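Late entry, evening session. Most of the bench is empty. Finally got around to the prediction I had been postponing all week. Sequence below, unchanged from the version circulated by S.P.
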Amino acid sequence: MSDLTYLVDVPGVAAPTTPYSPGVIAGGWCVVSCQLAVDPATGRLVDGDIDVQAPAALDRVAAVLRAAGADWPSVVSVTVLLAQQSDARPFDDHYRRRWPAGGPYPARAIYQAGALAPGALVGVAATALSGPSR
């Protein structure tokens, strides 16, 4: 277990209220837990539609990546959970802005989730290369 680093107190991410770590570094990889559009200052879900929640959730992922010494170009896989499949296109508009124009983009899975947290429209998880191994 000594080669695992649990990212629990991450600047820009609200403290977990359930038993999970926002991110874990293991063997040169950073695994980012599913991040919702939670305001790090209040710990509450931001109020708004997908155009408000998508960038907020992506910002939380970016904060965990930074804490692991990673960034968007080091991401190899992303999982997106949407409350409504109709939000996929607007989500993509925000997602694309995280990479240089035209990609390349990481592997990705996008699902309509049966039930996210009350009021949540999107959750984003990622896996990236982290630290000096990049």
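Two things to note before I forget:
The two ends are 22 Å apart (CA to CA).
The chain has a mean pLDDT of 93.
Will write this up properly tomorrow.
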